[in-house]
Amino acid sequence: MLTSGPRGTKDILPDSVRVWQYVESVARDICQVYGYKELRTPIFEHTELFLRGIGETTDIVEKEMYTFTDRGGRSITLRPENTAAAVRAYLEHKLYSGIQPVKLYYIGPMFRYDRPQAGRFRQFHQFGIEAIGAAGPQIDAEIILLAVSFLRKLGLSELRLLLNSVGCPNCRPLYRDKLQGFLKSKLGEFCSDCQSRFDRNPMRMLDCKNTGCQSLSQGAPHMSDCLCAECREHFNGVQQLLNAAGISYDLDPRLVRGLDYYTKTAFEIQYSPLGAQSAVCGGGRYDGLVAECGGEPTPGIGFAIGLERVLLALEKQQLIAAHDDNPDIFIVSMGESAQLQAFKLLMQLREAGFICEMDHMQRSLKSQLKLANKLQVRYVGIIGEEEAAVQRVMLKNMQSGEQELIDYNEVQHKL
Hints:
This protein is α+β, with helices and mostly antiparallel strands. It has two domains: 14-171 and 227-316, BirA Bifunctional Protein, domain 2 (2-Layer Sandwich), CATH 3.30.930.10; 329-414, Rossmann fold, CATH 3.40.50.800. The chain has 15 helices and 16 strands. The chain has helices spanning 14-34, 47-53, 59-64, 83-92, 137-153, 172-183, 192-200, 211-216, 229-244, 289-292, 307-316, 336-351, 365-374, 385-389, 408-414, and strands at 37-38, 44-46, 67-69, 75-78, 102-111, 123-132, 159-165, 250-251, 263-271, 279-285, 300-306, 329-333, 356-358, 379-383, 392-397, 403-407. Strands 1-5-6-11-10-9-7-8 form an eight-stranded mixed beta sheet, sandwiched between helices. Strands 13-12-14-15-16 form a five-stranded mixed beta sheet, with helices on both faces. The chain has a three-stranded antiparallel beta sheet with strand order 2-4-3. The two termini are 46 Å apart.
């Protein structure tokens, strides 16, 4: 008998679901304020979408995707992220024909074959934002502000925003040459992954999590020294807008993010109390992705927030508020006619919006009262054969201990 789920997955039990629902409600509320509409894409897509969209040199594509061949012989992949899927939906449904930019958000599960650890799972959940169609720095700043505001509304205050520009196809060749020139003499000392990236995408070597590789790449040239005039103006514009909004940030020249589609603005938000796994949000601009997926050249920017990581942060900082979802009333019944009337009263009260429970296990009177105590109900309504005969219920206030015999139609008013 199977008694555990697959490694890297986690059941979200009823006591935890309410916290997830709270976090998701905060996300939905702030998206409404900022004018973003929800998008729900399939959990699996054609593998080619991620090969072209994410980039074949990324860890996600090379090592982490859940890919299989379906019964029709098609290569299918469980979505490892949702930006490529959002762009596919943008093109398939001609969202570009409406008001621009198209402002979308999503909340849902993603899948990566990763090493499970605190706040990281193989099936994990993201809250993400995509804004497609606007090229100016204003939308970059808006996206960043939305992410910061979401985390702050949850109560997280020790946030660090890291910012960088990863350039564009016009200025990246110069940086690529400089970076390869710096790394070439030490290439044999890098890990095998970094060595394979040297020719294909040397910027990804700066994103390696191997501490030895990080040490070897210290002192590497900065992309900021190679930015073209357009990228430099755009990046300066983003910083000016963040300054105007009073948002503090740190420039991090090593921040390149782990996906090949990023251009210009790249950012990450860290929550330091989480320690080594402090990143809770990552995002950036992807001006070439729509064209890569078959559309006209169209700018875009977005972010993704790992909800497991956010919930871990809320738990560590004791920011999860107590929630009272105890029943308003537990109806105790004894005898066949009493049970029928208790069930009818229960349904009437539920229709009126009250949280109600009754015994479904044929317990004794004493056991039913014990169960009502465990459930921490506000009231207990007792219907025995005598009460049933006169269409009344003994209503007991569990806090004050007061009780009175009342008609069924008075119970709702009392509650």
